[in-house]
Amino acid sequence: MKIKPASLLVLSLFLLSPLTAAGNAHxxxxxxxxxxxxxxxxxxxxxxxxxxxxxxAIQGDGREKKNVRFYGMRYxxxxxxxxxxxxxxxxxxxxKAVEELEISLRQLPTAEAKKYLEMARMDMxxxxxxxxxxxxxxxTPSELRNLKTAKQENTAAIAVVIGNRDYKNRDVPPVNYxxxxxxLMKEALIKSLGYREGNIIYExxxxxxxxxxxxxxxxxxxxxxxxxxxPGKSDVFVYYSGHGAPNLESxxxxxxxxxxxxxxIDISGYPLEVLYRNLASLKARSVTVVTDACFSGxxxxxxxxxxxxxxxxxxxxxxxxxxxNSSSGTELAxxxxxxxxxLFTYYFLLGLTGAADKNGDGKITLGxxxxxxxxxxxxxxxxxxxxxKQTPTFTVQDSSRALVTYR
Length: 407
What we know:
By secondary structure, the chain is α/β, with parallel strands linked by helices. It folds into 2 domains: 97 residues, Tetratricopeptide repeat domain (Serine Threonine Protein Phosphatase 5, Tetratricopeptide repeat, Alpha Horseshoe); 264 residues, Rossmann fold (3-Layer(aba) Sandwich), CATH 3.40.50. It has a 6-stranded mixed beta sheet with strand order 4-3-5-9-10-14, with helices on one face. The protein has a 3-stranded antiparallel beta sheet with strand order 6-7-8. Strands 1-2 form a two-stranded antiparallel sheet. Strand 11 and strand 12 form a beta hairpin.
């Protein structure tokens, strides 16, 4: 019996369709397999391998969930942040354990996450508990749990979020809330600005090598960030919470890496000029830089007066670049201990709950955010710190640009 060509085509499609469907299902569930691999490594006590597997799962889907279909008729709970935090705890990486377990508890509280979080906090304070500084940990302020939800996902957008709290140099004080600042800013990027979690480079206690690997160097701007950007399509958002530092002679500004030494900042720091120049070379659709840091040197140099920094910044000339810093000139960037966050970051995030949407049109423009922060940060800084000045600075070409468009 001869089979007609049309019948052969139908038969071929019939035979291939299950394979195609299976392939698509596999692609969609890769993160599930990473999670299951992580559980297997954890059960065997292979915690480093488990951490890597859970990290890959989080890149695919970073939401804690119950009753997820793994495959076939097998269902189970999906808690990649909790499991990763527990593995960090067993590796005595207490700072990372606290970070992951706090994320888990904010998303979907469990007794297991709470237990290990308490254990990690206790062990951080013991002799031999590592160099990590212990900051007072408070619950996420209830008013920040109501961040607005982005109207649509920004699929090409890329972000870098860095929180540098702990420094290897014993003369450098910790920035107590930097990691909490970074964690909540990452959540805001996903929920309010529509960024994909897999498109966010997230680092805590970043070394100079880490900063160079992300942003590139003076001689080579092609770091991890540049490799992820789609020219003309990607909105790039960079957030940094931690110490900044000046060179007291040249007055050039630097990000202070976790392994940096402010006394030789021109060697051990990451120059702001290199950061801005490399960001300008990305050819992104837009670039937004937000820093909760002061660059006066006041917290770092006990025998020197604060200085104002001088920065050559090619981003300033770009119409699609927006630079926001928590303080100006020789001012300090203050904390808000009651909220467990940097003062500037707290009000920045509060603005994204809709508090900054002055006209209630479902958009939060940079102009509205600037006005909101100007009305809140200087006042609260004076109130909390006996008259201390802190004035956020905005360098933007277009204040009508909507940072957030929400449902």
